[in-house]
């Protein structure tokens, strides 16, 4: 079976399988945690299984199980082995796929940890992981069978649970969207400071629409993952710290890109806590951060721009929103001009119908729409403004400014707000 046909087949099965699957028919109230390695280079990629784990409770959605909220740069599909029915699917992006856009990937092979949570199947199920390239083609895929009685699925979360506090509790995990805020680079003596920083991050996010209107749908848990050292690693300054999730600046040699490759450690520290989305706060005043869709947000907690940055990065990791800023006239390797991006807040106009075309008077809107002195800070004047997805030309954003464009913007633009609201509704309705 070819890669292209596999993707088509999975997609066809997804849309022909019964909608609104009953969770209890196929799943136990447990979580299956799958640890994978994404490896390779620009030419060849490979997905391999590292380990399967499980823990009590499932905090994820129990409706829309066989539907995708967004396309993402990758997809996980779980099918019932006996019937072939798609019983769960989700999408994601990964640091590995970002790295494939770097020149380094042309001559070097690397491996990145990736961990995903799925509901625990009652019967044998087949899990397929697909990675897509920038042209939305399947670059590699991997399938494996999960046997619920497999004695080598490690049970976790029974003991040594990381200390944590609920900052916002609005209902049981299976009824709410569960967000954890983790400590990174906070030593034992810094933990109370972490709880204050986590509260500040929570307040910042829920001061923005549409999160503030949907607070009742969220639980937020502060997780005091203690580090040996205070602060985080800054390789360009030859500073290396022993921290909870081994984060560091200079990812892909970019000064402000703060990420962690120790994804297994992140999830190990969360064992025994009900969670879906992850925010990691770094105990440093050095500017930076990063957010990866359905993976994690990681941002500095003591820079003056902490609050807008944590909201921006959560827009990436929770909402799958793209960066709306631009710094080069050349096309980004992540966004070819002849392919419509999957992110809802940028467009190449190849398939503008799928974006915010319905929110503007297309017959009377200039393309590109002009940014003027009077509207250059507007987050509400919807048009088709050139410059987004890192490219000054060929990619368009909805408004002159937005939380996904600058730290100075006061809000998400209406297009981003609609995308976020649709995602919230997908999870809770």
How many angstroms separate the termini? 36 Å
**Fourth CATH level, the homologous superfamily of the largest domain:** Collagenase (Catalytic Domain)
Query: In percent, how much strand structure appears in the residues?
Result: 25-35%
- Strand arrangement within the widest β-sheet reads 9-11-10-12-14-13
Rg of Cα set: 21 Å
In CATH, what is the class of the largest domain?
Answer: Alpha Beta
Instruction: Look up the CATH topology of the largest domain.
Output: Collagenase (Catalytic Domain)
Short description:
With 429 residues, the protein is an alpha/beta fold. Helices cover 17% and strands 28% of the residues.
How would you portray this structure in words?
The protein has three domains: about 5-155, Immunoglobulin-like; about 165-315, Collagenase (Catalytic Domain) (3-Layer(aba) Sandwich); about 325-405, no CATH class. Helix 4 (about 190-205) packs across helix 6 (about 305-315). It is an alpha/beta fold. The chain has helices at about 5-15, 25, 95-100, 190-205, 265-270, 305-315, 415-429, and strands spanning about 25-40, 45-55, 75-80, 85-90, 110-120, 125-130, 140-145, 155, 165-170, 175-185, 220-225, 275-280, 290, 295-300, 325-330, 385-390, 390-395. Residues about 1-5 and about 5-20 have low confidence and may be disordered. The protein is globular. It has seven helices and 17 strands. The strands form four sheets. It has a six-stranded mixed β-sheet. A four-stranded mixed β-sheet has the order 5-1-2-8. Strand 3 and strand 4 (about 85-90) form a beta hairpin.
